[in-house]
Amino acid sequence: MKSIFSTLFALLMLVGTAVQAQDSRVTVLDAKQVSKLDLTGKWVGKRHQYSWDKSHYIETFDYEFDLKQEGDIVTGTTTIINSNGEYADMKLEGVVVGNKFHFREYEISGAVRPEGKVWCFKSGELYIAKDGDNIKFVGATPSYMEIYNYPCSGGFTDIVKVDNSNNVSNITTFTTTNLNITENISISVFPNPFIDNTTVYYNVTEDAKVKMDVFDISGKLVTNLFEGNQKAGSYNVSFNGKNAGYQSGVFILKLTINGEVYSRQLVQMH
User: Fold this and answer.
1) Which domain holds residue 64?
2) Which residue, of 149, 181, 213, is where some domain finishes?
3) Within this chain, do residues 118 and 206 fall inside the same structural domain, yes or no?
4) Is residue 13 part of a domain?
């Protein structure tokens, strides 16, 4: 959520390639571990809102998810509440890709708006992590205005699953010890958000079988950007959602290299 006073906006860089855990008990799970989990249920925690220059947090909100997972597809609602008790209930859709939960809010179903301000729709690619015997979402959550998808200042989300009964038998067997997750390859997207075209830059560290797909946030395949064998080296591929009939929206880039899955969010404005 971002409070705004005008239509001024700035370009926003999406989540980076590493997540630093806040607690020694927190471990980011891998795709195989995530595939054993059920994300259905209630999640509660905090969302910290960035300043416009993203140098510090300017406000912290209570943040809740109520989710239903069917296969890799996730639907549900979110609630965000400020310190004055003003809130917004929003509809959510998303999909699990590898070890991340990609989501976006797309409709306000009820709200009390702070005077002179609005609630922005949030999206994000949240890492799924183990925190003691609990499961949590942690990661950057960019935010966008209801009209034209213009960026708000964005923020960072850290929420824990309240009812973990469906996961207890699975997470107690996890032995992951890494407190950081650093991807083995470099992926960057620029510009992002974008209006017409964006370019995905990535490297392949060894000769590999590579597949690059783009999905919409509901999990529907939008286009295949590449599939084949590539030598070790650096590559780039362009994407424009309008070529597939989308005027704007949140998309998911899924890059598979020798069976390892990497993902990024792409945000197209109009």
Assistant:
1) 18-181
2) 181
3) no
4) no
Residues 36 and 110 in one domain: yes
Give the Cα-Cα-Cα angle 111, 114, 120 (nearest 5 degrees).
Answer: 65
In order, the DSSP letters of 42-58 are: EEEEEEEEEPTTSSSEE
Q: pLDDT, tens digit, for every residue of 210-268?
A: 999 999 999 999 999 999 999 999 999 999 999 888 888 899 999 999 999 999 999 99
Neighbours of 131 (CB within 10 A): 18
Same-domain check for residues 122 and 215: no
* Structure-block tokens of residue 172: 């107690």
90 and 105 in contact (C-beta within 8 Å)? yes
| Residues 148 and 250 placed together within one structural domain of the fold | no
Q: How many CB atoms lie within 10 A of CB 267?
A: 23
Domain total of the chain: 2
Q: Is residue 202 part of a domain?
A: yes
pTM of structure: 0.85
Greatest Cα pair distance, the chain, in angstroms, is 57
In a domain, 117, yes or no: yes
